[in-house]
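Hello forum,

I keep getting stuck at the same step: I have a sequence, I want structure tokens, and every attempt I make locally crashes halfway through. Rather than fight my setup again tonight, could one of you with a working pipeline run this one for me? It's a single chain of 361 residues.
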Amino acid sequence: MTTESHVARRLPLIDARPRRAPSWRDEARAAISSLEALEARLELTDSEREGTRAAIAAGLPLSITPYYLSLIDPKDPEDPIRRQCVPRVEELREGDGELRDPLGEEAYSPVPNLVQRYPDRALLLVTDRCSVYCRFCTRARMVGRDGGARSEERLRPAIDYLRDHPEVREVILSGGDPLVMSTPRLQRVLELVKSVPHIELLRVGTRAPVVLPSRITPSLCRALRSFAPLWVMTHFNHPRELTAKSRAACERLADHGIPVMNQSVLLRGINDDAATLDALFRGLVRARVRPYYLLQSDVMRGTSHLRTPLATGLSKFVVDTPGGHGKVPLVPDSIVRREAGRTWLRTWRGVEVAYPDPSEP
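Reply #2:
Ran it on my machine without issues. Output:
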């Protein structure tokens, strides 16, 4: 045996195959979902620690993607990104007027997985999973614990309902976040909806550009483009969420001819000042995203510490009224009267609804 061959046999084999770049699925699987993992990355307060234990035990689940976690200041409990996704013990407190189903979706659900609160549009709930669970989620009653993506069989009653109701012309895919589904599965759902002849417009509600921008791949964009007219409704709440990666995700959608709109929720101590909102809306426009809604936070149980009094942004808001009565612009014709801690609003149906201000923290 020559010296060269002896040495060659002792050297470790080199794998010349190219390594696969991490995918959006890899990142979603790596999401922080335990107290131990969260504590290893952030300096938690007692409130966050107790709130996280409670959330994992029985509440709205904990999930934070590595990307979104990277935006958080690990030492600052008042960080605006952190307050959106890290549980607090305040979630265990039920404020005055707060509801398990603040928008009355269950009352307006004629068949499973479908909500119709307006004559010409319907909401199709295609999954209960998100890559990040926002602590102010209006569907905290159901997300994260109801079986994941809906099968075609589970969605069939909703599709049949749409087929039987020609007045419905627009369908909004929501959940959970539809973009946590695989692209083929999402395409199949869109095909089912588009098979209904009178459906003219599709909308997809997602926080993926904000919390998992790697999900917005060229192949996903091409798939969505094939179902035009289709709009993406995303959900940026703070200008620090507009990173180079998130802006690129929005621009990629726009480059494929997919209009992108944004809805923001007014959140106490996060974006409830004019300077923050100005920076957010200007940044969205630069990213080719249309600022569409600035919404008062829904009266969801355990969200008093995040909600603002209605008076904070009265001139700017559209309120999704408690009980599922629809959105009301806060203009004089919509405001019936004000009482201590409550504002009475008149909906588009002429119904008077009380909106309760949050309790003081």
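Residues 1-9 have pLDDT under 50 and may be disordered. If your local run keeps crashing, start a new thread with the error log.
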